[in-house]
Amino acid sequence: MQPGEINPQQVEIVDAAGAGVTGLTLSDLTISAYARGYGASIFTAWTHGSVMQPLGSGQYDLAFTLPPSAGKWRYRAKLNNPAYRFASNNQWEGETETQDADSLFGSVVRPVATLSQSAQLGMPLPLELVAYRYRTLSIPVVDQSGAAYTNLATDFPSATLRMSVRSKNQTTTVWDGGPSATPVGFAIATSGSTLSITIPENATFFSALAAGVDSLDDLYWEVTGDLGSDTAKTQPIIRSSNLRLIRREVGT
Questions:
Q1: Are 169 and 216 in the same domain?
Q2: Residue 217 has pLDDT above 90, yes or no
Q3: Is the pLDDT of residue 106 over 50?
Q4: pTM of structure
Q5: Is residue 14 located within the same domain as residue 32?
Q6: Do 28 and 92 sit in the same domain of this protein?
Q7: What domain range includes position 164?
């Protein structure tokens, strides 16, 4: 689910004899709601805006607003009257993402000269490339709030960047471009809040698309950098994401 979205739940409250309890309101509950944004180390309370509505026979709708930022969350409702109990689930947890599955598929990168779609730091970004065609990608990077990540070049100097392509099961490195392996024609750099990548038309990972095959969806790509140039603090700038190769239409 996405940040700020309403999460509706249905609960059942009964007494010691198992009979449904009616007439309760939100004031009869104590709500504990804690969230931890990606990159944060601790959970903190968030304003959940809970609403409780009776459905009859001890059944209630309990809805709350998810945290405003991407990350993990925990929510628990506790009855103030010890004579009552929940006959249903009364606690939930999950994650919020700035992009759901539909928006991810809808934002798959098309084979164009420049990629203008922004990427949230450390989150996936599906990519589609035409095999054996030169590409220059210019990717604005944003933070959890959607604002430009202006410290990108400072936090992740260009000399520490690496783009890697791996097999679907993540066990086989198909291709590496970066400090320790720089294929001819490949370039990767950060400037301000922008990540720039140049992929040469002879990039060897294109050979994963067999002759006569229209497309390949079994590859994943990732961009990492060393935070503050510290090799012990390698972090994903773009988390491992689907890389789709499609056959060039004409020419060689």
A1: yes
A2: no
A3: no
A4: 0.52
A5: yes
A6: yes
A7: 101-246
pLDDT at 3: 83
Same domain, 82 and 131: no
Burial per residue of 60-83, b for 16 or more beta-carbon CB atoms within 10 angstroms, e otherwise:
bebebbbbebbbbbebebebeeee
* DSSP letters for 159-222: GG-EEEEEETTS-SEEEEEBTTB--TT-EEEEETTEEEEEE-TT-GGGGGS-TT--EEEEEEEE
Checking DSSP bridges between strand 215-226 and strand 162-167, what pairing results, if any? antiparallel
pLDDT digits (tens, 9 = 90+) for 131-167: 888 888 888 998 877 888 888 989 998 888 988 888 8
Q: How many domains does the chain have?
A: 2
Other Cβ atoms within 10 Å of 114 Cβ, number: 10
195: domain CATH number? 2.60.40
Q: How far apart are the C-alpha atoms of 44 and 37, rounded to whole Å? A: 9
**Are 213 and 88 in the same domain?**
no
More confident site: 249 or 101 = 249
